[in-house]
Amino acid sequence: MSDPGATTPTTPTTPVRTLDGTLDLPLVGLGTYGLRGQAGYRSLRDALDVGYRLLDTATMYENEDEVGRAVADAGLPDVRITTKLHHEHAGREEEFLTRSLRLLRVDVLDLWLIHWPPGGAARPDVWERLVAARESGRVRAVGVSNYSLAQLDELTAATGVTPAVNQVKWGPALFDAGLLAAHRERGVVLEGYSPFKATDLAAGPLRAAAGRHGVSAEQVVVRWHLQHGVVVIPKSGDRERQARNRDVAGFALDAAEVAAIDALGR
Ligand SMILES: NC(=O)c1ccc[n+]([C@@H]2O[C@H](COP(=O)([O-])OP(=O)(O)OC[C@H]3O[C@@H](n4cnc5c(N)ncnc54)[C@H](OP(=O)(O)O)[C@@H]3O)[C@@H](O)[C@H]2O)c1
Which of 18, 119, 131, 182 has the fewest Cβ atoms within 10 Å of its own Cβ atom? Predict the structure, then answer.
């Protein structure tokens, strides 16, 4: 098993988490929900221009074509793409993987997730088919989204394969040290979504840290994820905000600041 606690600072701006000992996932990626059409394509090109190397999409976002076009046109060798199987498409894994690969214009997908537990259940049979896709070489890593710990354990018990990632709603107000530790113990990388929407950006500890470091509350939230080793995928369609959201290498939160932000989760 890979060391899920390992955070490798390759360069100051692109720390990564390693999945299954093979795939490096940048700790800060771009959420792409709502980035569609020509304006969406432009925003995706902007994000790649300003340095994003992880794009998070899903069949449900109906923008895999835009994501695929932006990545292909940018011609960068090291972009990671996550997409997700819609839970209502359980049983049609092969069809939707083929479709995602075509729209994304790649032969191999970096990370494929089950978007939600289908019908609220863990569904080891669906998980087995994701694992088979990885074993066939068309996907580098497989994981889930919105799964509980019990559901993660059910998949592991049934198949012997633990999801590399669990993508869940995460942010200071949702901080749960026990849940984070439980993912780490299982070798599951926690990836947080809706970091800003799930956060009261006017909360005292965020404003205080932002003021002390001369950054925005959004940057504090991103930096806080990074210091916990949680992959974070803020969405912005605006080039300036995209650039600012990932410009968090120039400051560090001290232990007291992290503790004060963690306490927003209580
Ligand atoms: N697995 C799941 O079930 C699931 C569910 C929800 C989301 N996700 C993923 O997570 C990604 C991120 O979550 P999200 O899109 O829900 O919300 P989010 O990233 O928390 O927030 C996005 C919103 O914040 C605004 N924003 C971004 N940077 C800003 C800044 N510096 N200052 C002010 N406003 C800023 C954006 O507007 P502008 O675009 O105008 O900047 C947008 O309205 C999604 O795009 C998607 O990829 C996954």
Answer: 119
